[in-house]
Amino acid sequence: MAPVNPFREVDGSPNVYTTGRTLMTVNAARDVNVYGERLVEFAGTQYRSWDPMRSKLAALILLGGRDLGLDRSSRVLYLGAASGTTASHVSDIASSGMVYCVEVSQRSFRDLVGVCESRRNMIPIMADASRPEDYSHMVEGVDLVYQDIAQRDQAEMFVRNMRHFDVERGILMLKSRSVDVNREPGEVYAETRRELVSKGLKVREAVDISQYAKDHAAFVVGP
Ligand code: SAM
């Protein structure tokens, strides 16, 4: 009797798999791991475990975030890619798409370049995400902006990129303490939602992900 596949696709999150408790993506760079994550083989497919304590996007999906606009063919502009931990899982998901990874820190960028070298759909871009005009010539046909940058003006930066690339879909990982260390996170989230809406974006979902990432909420924007 053939062994039963322990992995099933998460409803509403194409190309993300679960065993019921943990999340997995299909490794697009066979036998290469990025941050010490576990690789698991089943029926000729290699899965990478996806740690919600290390990745806010995994936290969002585990907490029920759905219809994120991220699928096999997505072309993603990823702002604040750091060393490529989450971006590598986005590259697994968008297996026939593209992930443009913007990062400003030289130290992180060096690691990011190493991760991109083993993946055909990840492009590293050393730039300041608050200046989309500096990298727009390197980016083509983006349909989703993902941002994870702990800066005071993070919402404004997100809106600027959404407008510059004329994109309707986006995911903003907001760190409230970086916006204002003295205010309650809930207040900062409410104000951010108002700011996004006032700038013409439609917030489909706002999810408090603080059980995995302290003082963070995810804003899912879409048509
Ligand atoms: N998204 C990453 C992950 O899940 O693997 C973690 C990102 S870390 C919280 C934030 C990153 O944003 C840092 O690597 C930092 O250097 C970068 N960053 C901060 N300001 C930036 C800016 N203006 N433009 C581009 N990257 C920036």
DSSP strand content: 25-35%
Largest sheet: 7 strands, mixed
Helical amount among residues, as a percent range? Answer: 25-40%
Q: Give the low-confidence spans.
A: none
The neighbouring-strand order within the major sheet is: 8-7-6-9-10-12-11
Enumerate how many helices there are, as a single number: 6
Question: What would you report as the Rg, rounded to the nearest angstrom?
Answer: 17 Å
What small ligands are held by the chains? S-adenosylmethionine
Overall residue-averaged pLDDT value: 96
What sort of overall outline do the alpha carbons produce when their principal axes are compared? globular
Our measurement of the CA-to-CA distance between the termini, rounded to an integer number of angstroms, reads: 46 Å
User: What string gives the helices and strands in order?
Assistant: EEEEEHEHEHEEHEHHEE
- What is the count of β-strands? 12
* Structural class category: alpha/beta
What labels describe this entry?
alpha/beta; 12 strands; binds S-adenosylmethionine
Topology (elements, then pairings):
Layout: E1 8-9, E2 16-18, E3 23-26, E4 39-42, E5 45-50, H1 56-62, E6 75-79, H2 85-93, E7 98-103, H3 106-117, E8 122-126, E9 144-147, H4 154-164, E10 169-175, H5 176-179, H6 185-198, E11 203-208, E12 216-221
Parallel strand pairs: 6-7, 6-9, 7-8, 9-10
Antiparallel strand pairs: 1-2, 2-3, 3-5, 4-5, 10-12, 11-12
The protein binds S-adenosylmethionine (SAM).
